[in-house]
Write a structure and sequence with these properties.
Layout lengths: L1 E8 L3 E9 L4 E10 L3 E3 L2 E3 L2 H18 L4 E5 L5 E4 L20 H8 L2 H8 L8 H6 L9 E4 H10 L4 E2 H4 L5 E2 L4 E2 L1 H6 L10 E2 L3 E5 L2 H7 L5 E4 L4 H7 L9 E5 L2 E8 L6 H5 L3 E4 L5 E8 L2 H12 L6 H9 L21 H11 L8 H27 L5 E5 L6 H11 L2 E4 L4 H13 L6 H8 L3 E3 L4 H15 L1
Parallel strand pairs: 1-6, 6-14, 9-12, 15-19, 19-20
Antiparallel strand pairs: 1-2, 2-3, 4-5, 7-8, 10-11, 13-14, 15-16, 16-18, 17-18, 20-21
Helix pairs in contact: 9-16, 12-14, 14-15, 14-18, 16-17
């Protein structure tokens, strides 16, 4: 049995998962799980990188107690970064992408490079927290020796090696998708020093070995550290169990990443109009997708319910939704009002009232509104992706933690009219581990191994006429 360790960070939790490979199938064993919550420091929303690295160390120790493993790889969410100073240390905790400092940054950026030109250069969806926009307002950039994206920052803490893995680099809004390197023209025109951007490496590169002093501290033999699809979505897409060349995927968690894989970037007026992003894939292809606010809305609603003394489980929330009238209230999940944490229930009610639907009166009405709105946003994205690529897609592969949510899976099938193939749940960890094994030479064909390793469940569309009517209402609300 070949064994490697995946450290998988989502935007709200993290886990260390041991992968065991018998030559045909990968089995996953979760050895450590922890929360990943940002904190306000002097009014600024930041990640506690030191504490998160302690969680990585705990995961390594726990995995080592179970089995000897050969290598480690880390994936995280996109866009955020840490700054390494001239002394080799992190100068401050990294900003969280939900911090308000970048609220107006895109408008300022377009004064330097107009929006359409910037899209043609990078292929990236405009979101106010993209790395480019964060660096524009970064107060410590003059102290930087190196900028490291989050997974590469943790890799640096493990090895002392500085690099940027291609899939995570591609989320920065400063990446050349065709050359698989930094887009130096963008960097130069914004006046950032080239020296702070590390060498880009492709997924499947063995980047170094754990520092001996760290290995000694943890009581383990120094492990190899591998750059995999360091953007969690890239690893999740690598674990989609499909033999078809053209497929739709939803990597569903706090965010929903809805898209397909293309051979080349899609840089058309239409894809720019629809604000669809092009990000690098582990195999050198392009993830053509939309970032959609996903189960963040459900997570935030649950947090507020608990604060209000209503200790609902997620199952309880589903039951409340199912007992409520369908399509009474709808929202655009991607409206900027829903990005910040806190006060989510009131903001949903305010949105419904502002758009002439009245105000939800029960908890079930709010939860149903969230679920139906996400599913209808999926349909909207499905149509736009297909229009841009000119292809027909018969099924949607839904992967990630959101596949545990049976209500959302069924509503996605109902809304889109497509069969939903749900699973694997731990897609990101599975993709992370598969690419590690590929880098080590233990796997020749990723697809075969993924197909052998993934557990799936299928959902067929229902009540399509009713969802068609609801979609007309939804389009009026988001227009």
């Amino acid at each position: 049995m070949k064994k490697v360790l995946a450290i998988d960070f989502g935007a709200s939790s993290g886990r260390a998962i041991l992968g065991s490979f018998d030559g045909k199938k990968i089995e996953l064993t979760e050895v450590h799980r922890f929360s990943n919550d940002p904190n306000y420091e002097n009014g600024e929303l930041r990640w506690n990188a030191t504490q998160l690295f302690e969680e990585i160390k705990t995961g390594i120790k726990k995995a080592n107690e179970i089995a000897d493993f050969e290598a480690i790889a880390i994936d995280t969410w996109g866009v955020d970064y840490g700054i390494i100073g001239k002394d080799g240390n992190l100068i401050a905790n990294p900003y969280n992408y939900r911090d308000s400092r970048t609220d107006n940054a895109p408008q300022e950026a377009f004064k330097v490079i107009p929006e359409k030109e910037l899209y043609n250069m990078t292929g990236i969806q405009v979101m106010n927290f993209n790395t480019l926009f964060q660096l524009m307002v970064e107060k410590d950039i003059d102290k930087a020796e190196t900028i490291l994206m989050m997974p590469d920052l943790f890799g640096y803490m493990l090895t002392g090696e500085k690099y940027c893995e291609s899939t995570i680099c591609s989320t920065s809004h400063m990446f050349d998708q065709k050359k698989c390197d930094w887009n130096w023209e963008v960097i130069d025109r914004f006046g950032f020093p080239r020296s702070i951007f590390p060498t880009v490496v492709k997924a499947g590169t063995i980047v170094g070995t754990m520092k001996k002093e760290l290995a000694d501290e943890l009581g383990v033999e120094p492990k190899e550290v591998i750059a995999i699809g360091a953007h969690d979505t890239a690893s999740a897409v690598a674990a989609v169990p499909s033999t078809e060349k053209d497929f739709i995927f939803i990597s569903c968690g706090t965010w929903s990443l809805f898209g397909t894989v293309t051979d080349e970037p899609v840089l058309t007026d239409l894809s720019n109009k629809y604000n669809i992003t092009n990000e690098y894939s582990v195999d050198g292809k392009i993830r053509f997708l939309r970032n959609i606010i996903g189960l963040w809305l459900i997570q935030e609603a649950k947090r507020q319910f608990v604060k209000d003394g209503k200790n609902y489980s997620y199952g309880d929330m589903e039951e409340l939704a199912l007992k409520s009238e369908p399509f009474k209230y709808l929202i655009d999940p991607d409206d900027p009002v829903f990005v910040p944490p806190g006060g989510m229930l009131d903001r949903i009610c305010d949105y419904c009232e502002k758009t002439g639907q009245g105000r939800p009166q029960t908890d079930g009405e709010i939860v149903r509104c969230i679920y139906e709105s996400i599913a209808l946003k999926y349909r909207n994205s499905f149509e736009k992706i297909a229009e841009c690529t000119g292809k027909e897609y018969k099924a949607i592969h839904m992967v990630g933690g959101g596949t545990k949510d049976k209500l959302l899976c069924q509503m996605t099938a109902n809304s889109t009219g497509a069969k939903v193939i749900a699973g694997p749940i731990e897609a990101t960890a599975l993709g992370n581990i598969a690419v590690q094994l590929y880098a080590k030479g233990y796997i020749d064909d990723l697809t075969d191994v993924i197909m052998n390793s993934a557990e799936i469940k299928e959902y067929m569309p229902k009540d399509e006429d009713m969802w068609d009517e609801a979609y007309k209402k939804f389009k009026n609300i988001i227009s």
